[in-house]
Design brief:
120 residues, alpha+beta, three-stranded antiparallel β-sheet, 3 helices, 17% helix
Length: 120
């Protein structure tokens, strides 16, 4: 869930009107939609993300991502009992669990640049 409407590729009404945020409190859900997380290999779309204007920070459910077939591996600092994730920070970029062929050749050719590999 997020309070940033700009992150959404699309927004639509939802039957879910409130979500539990863990502090013995419910907050209102306005809409749901699809958010794109940009990676160095392209954009991954996450559907059914809630637009929650009152939330203080973006929240990502690791269990829901795993249920949808995503592989989750990350190294970020915890902030309280949450992980502070800013997908726009380069140092928090996500990487595939299995290297793709471009990465393998990048390493084999002594870190030849990616554009050159794509041209080859």
């Amino acid at each position: 869930m997020t309070n940033d409407k700009e992150l959404f590729k699309d927004l639509r009404p939802t039957n879910i009107t409130k979500v539990w945020i863990g502090h013995c409190d419910y907050i209102s859900v306005k809409e749901r939609g699809t958010v794109g997380l940009t990676r160095y290999l392209g954009t991954k779309l996450i559907s059914d993300v809630f637009f929650v204007p009152q939330i203080q920070q973006n929240r990502l459910s690791v269990s829901q991502l795993i249920e949808r077939g995503f592989i989750v591996a990350f190294e970020v600092k915890m902030k309280g009992k949450s992980f502070a994730l800013n997908p726009l920070e380069k140092k928090q970029a996500n990487f595939p669990a299995i290297e793709n062929i471009i990465e393998v050749w990048h390493k084999r050719l002594v870190h030849y640049d990616h554009q050159g590999l794509l041209q080859m």
